[in-house]
Amino acid sequence: MKKIIFILSIIIALFSCKKESNFSVIQVEQQRILKNAEQFLTSKPITVTANIAERSAGNQHDFYSEGDYWWPNPDDLQGAYIRKDGLTNPDNFTAHRKAIIRLCEIAGSLGSAYIITRDDKYVETLIPHLKAWFVNEDTKMNPNLMFAQAIKGKVTGRGIGIIDTLHLIEVTLAIKAIENSKTIHTDDLKAIKRWFADYLNWLTTHQFGEKEKNNGNNHSTCWALQVAVFADLVGSNKQTEFCKNFYKNTLLPNQMALDGSFPKETARTKPYGYSLFNLDAMVSLVQVLSTENENLFDYKTKDGKSIQLGMEFLYPFIKTKESWPFQKDVMYWNNWPIKQASLLFVGLHSNEEKYLDLWKKLSYDTTPEIVRNTIVKNPVLWVIK
Predict the structure, then answer these.
(1) How far apart are the C-alpha atoms of 168 and 206, rounded to whole Å?
(2) CATH number listed for the domain at residues 30-213
(3) In whole angstroms, what is the distance from residue 54 CA to residue 126 CA?
(4) Which helix (H) or strand (E) holds 341?
């Protein structure tokens, strides 16, 4: 009997530890989440159809954006744009990006609030936004990114633009959070999932998706992260398995150096921000793909590369940015770091207090460019199943 009681006490302790880790995230985030959710209770849907992009080669239902680092040629103002790496052109069309980020913030906040409270008012508020974007014929977005990151005088759209729908990830996680609520109509849920199935198919079959997958830097990581999350929503085990193998055999070994850095990011004009961004994207991918039977946080390549190694490399520079050994970013150097998801997810899985403590101390940044490059805005969606 004493032996049975002892074993039960160990089991209870283990479950308590897991709950405590999850509870800590809620404790840190709860006030912010409920405050954000409250302000969105009266928000009306705004989709891509609300702002017509005059330079777009698509129609009113097509998402459109323009290459960030492309500017008018001072020697030929009417000609094709020229590239200035790392320097964002403030005159680019951004309305559709802002709309999709707004959807992400609304869905992420309301979905997280529902997880915390189980109050259906958050589901009732979110449904009209989801229907406007993915169901209603008059306002929905076409399930492709044919016209993203266009460049005047050069291309009407590029595969590299697929990174613009990174903000649909937390929308997807919010859908997963509310899908068992009796408030959401079965037909609406089916239609929403059908949209994501169509978009997933486009991402994995169109030449733009193929090019983005093989880009070789953070764009490849973000392509895989989107595919993994959308595949989970629609139940595509084939794509889930592909993403696992892609991470183990391509992303991790090809992007990470033996010291844990990302050479293709440190070579950019914003090496600090890009390194943080890519680690967050890769850790987030590991977070969504890991299961009880296969924990990718523990995966190592034959030469010792792992997500833990990447965290060990960047942690000192997140803690003390001034020690960063590469050049300073040409823009937004002062805005990083923020509450980096890599600190939270690796900290939870490794039970490394220094990562969790630093994550708690850091803040979110509301600068539009930093928000655009923040993958995990509502971590409760990622850690509470």
Answers:
(1) 19
(2) 1.50.10.100
(3) 30
(4) helix 341-350
Phi, psi of 263 (to 5 degrees): -55, -35
Exposure of 314 in the CB half-sphere (CA atoms within 13 A): 34
**Structural domain boundaries of the chain?**
30-213, 215-385
Pull the structure tokens for residue 29: 């985030």
Which residue do the tokens 């033996």 mark?
A: 258
Encoded tokens for 155: 């291309």
Question: Are 30-213 and 215-385 equal in CATH topology?
Answer: yes
What's at 112, amino acid-wise? S
**What is residue 10's predicted lDDT score, i.e. its pLDDT?**
35
Judge whether 272 and 328 are in contact, CB under 8 Å: yes
Q: At what angle do helices 95-117 and 2-39 cross, to 10 degrees?
A: 140
Write down the residue that tokens 């002892």 correspond to.
6
Between the alpha carbon of residue 270 and those of residues 330, 364, 374, the distances in Å are 6, 19, 15
SS3 358: helix
Q: Which residues, at least 6 apart from 125, have a Cβ–Cβ distance to it below 8 Å? A: 40, 41, 43, 110
Encode pLDDT of 330-377 as tens digits: 999 999 999 999 999 999 999 999 999 999 999 999 999 999 999 999
Domain 215-385 CATH superfamily: Chondroitin AC/alginate lyase (1.50.10.100)
Residue with tokens 């960047």: 314
